[in-house]
Write a structure and sequence with these properties.
Blueprint lengths: L6 E3 L4 H11 L3 E4 L5 H6 L7 E4 L9 E3 L3 E5 L4 H6 L1 H6 L1 H6 L6 H6 L2 H7 L5 H8 L3 E6 L3 E6 H4 E3 L2 E2 L5 E9 L5 E8 L9 E10 L2 E10 L6 E2 L1 H7 L6 H12 L12 H22 L5
Parallel strand pairs: 1-3, 2-3
Antiparallel strand pairs: 4-5, 5-10, 6-7, 6-10, 8-9, 11-12, 12-13, 13-14
Helix pairs in contact: 10-11, 11-12
This protein binds flavin-adenine dinucleotide.
Flavin-adenine dinucleotide binds next to β2, α7, α8 and β10.
């Protein structure tokens, strides 16, 4: 389908980009990999009169390990993050989730920042960002830079804390915690489809007891969802099948996931329980402790 008409700008610096957003505000949209935005334009679900292409903007494609964290520029492609040695070594949860995003052709173009800014509640990266307690760095011409914690970044269905004049510049993901096992599990109807439900788990075990747990779900609400009750249920427990089953049950309790042609709400609740349990078991196995 033909795209609707729009004015197209291809700035080469962040300053120029921010000035364009300041000038055009609500009328404009940033274009990153185009893997979500272009279909939305074709279907007339988005009608910006101005597109600002981030493809030539310098300084948005860095990927580097710092002290205790990895910083990923917004324009790093999903495929580059997937193949990155830094990500493989320091962010095993992200490394595990990346290949589950669509197909390789999509990951070749789709960007890490685009996925986060698009905020599809079924997407893998937002759930990973919430489970890792990542920070998003945004910049605008008028207010400069600010850092937004993942938990308050995702505000609703395809809605984030980003203002229309802001660019998501980078993500900061805490890395390399010791005695921490992670796992990402999802169920999709076909390889490459969006997940019906996804579960991201971070588990820290000390002296054979669970010192900390973080659980985030995709596909069960308008945003990626932390499950604090399930996390509390795990803290201080020994690594047992029963503790994991109880936590998985708590993670699925009171969920109101959507019902659609892919699955009913009851089926998605069932998936949430099963996937959280599986992810907990695998995260523990990575630490050499089997329930
Ligand atoms: C067939 C198909 C299957 C897919 N399957 C999956 C899947 O299984 N899992 C999954 O997670 N995703 C999936 N995707 C989506 C894919 O991951 C997209 O690449 C991603 O969601 C958006 O990234 P993008 O770089 O293409 O962003 P774009 O499409 O260019 O932009 C998306 C939105 O984010 C905004 N935006 C982009 N970058 C920034 C920025 N730096 N600052 C502020 N706003 C910004 C844009 O204005 C736009 O509103 C699929 C896509 C397709 C076409």
């Amino acid at each position: 389908m033909k795209l609707p008409p729009f004015a197209y700008f291809a700035p080469s610096t962040l300053e120029e980009t921010l000035a364009l957003l300041r000038e055009h505000g609500d009328e404009s949209k940033l274009l990153a990999g185009g893997q979500s935005l272009v279909p939305l334009l074709a279907l007339r679900l988005a009608r910006p009169s101005v597109l600002v292409d981030l493809g030539h903007v310098a300084g948005l494609d860095h990927l580097a390990a710092g002290e205790g964290s990895v910083t990923i520029g917004a324009m790093v492609t999903e495929r580059r993050a997937e193949r990155s040695e830094v990500v493989g070594a320091q962010l095993p949860l992200l490394a595990e989730a990346m290949p589950l995003i669509g197909h390789q052709a999509i990951r070749n173009r789709g960007t890490v920042g685009g996925s986060i800014a698009h905020a599809d509640p079924s997407a893998e990266l937002p759930a990973v960002a919430v489970a890792l307690e990542a920070e998003m760095v945004a910049e605008s011409a008028q207010r400069g830079r600010r850092t937004i914690p993942a938990e308050s970044f995702f505000q609703g269905f395809f809605t984030t804390a980003l203002e229309p004049d802001e660019v998501l510049v980078e993500l900061r993901l805490p890395a390399g915690e010791s005695r921490t096992g992670v796992a990402f599990e999802e169920a999709a109807r076909r390889h490459g489809d969006f997940a019906m439900v996804g579960a991201a788990v971070v588990l820290r075990v000390e002296s054979d007891r669970i010192a900390d747990a973080r659980i985030a779900l995709a596909g069960v609400a308008d945003t990626p969802l932390r499950r604090p009750e399930a996390e509390r249920a795990l803290r201080g427990e020994e690594v047992t099948a029963e503790a994991f089953e109880d936590a998985a049950t708590a993670a699925a309790r009171d969920l109101s996931p959507p019902s659609d042609l892919h699955g009913t709400a009851a089926y998605r609740r069932h998936l949430a329980r099963v996937l959280v349990r599986r992810a907990l078991v695998r995260a523990a196995q990575r630490l050499g402790v089997s329930p």
